[in-house]
Design goal:
It contains 5 helices and 6 strands, in the order βαβαββαααββ. It is of the alpha/beta class and about 150 residues long. α1 packs across α4 and α3 packs across α4. The longest helix is centred in the first third of the chain and has 13 residues.
Length: about 150
Amino acid sequence: MTTKTPLPTQETIEPKWYVIDATDQRLGRLASEIAKILRGKNKPIFTPHMDTGDFAIVINAEKVIVTGKKPKQKVYRRHSGRPGGMKTETFEQLQQRIPERIIETAVKGMLPKNSLGRKLFTKLKVYAGSTHPHQAQKPEELKINTIPTGGN
């Protein structure tokens, strides 16, 4: 008789909280690391159809960088649902207006496109400044190396 691999249960899954500083980090590389943490791929108990991930708090979202001509050429689109209701803005414009949305959009695109992905996305907390209201959760500092540059 073969033994089955045990599935993680809510009791065995203990989500941690991580603080990630986005200062001078490359957007895509940072977003893929955050998506791995949210998904739980960095844990030995990873199960594809379950939420085994941790919470991620991203601070200094306004200081994230992109390379090359992307600040002027990368376009973010949203639609009101009405005819002619598409609004577009560049990376630079969105960084001035709502810097949190840049990281949220990048990470959301790297999560599964189903109910599990929507549940995982709620574990992401992004803040423009260096402060966050999650001190009670005792988050750990997490260093992510994404080839920082000395400016563009």
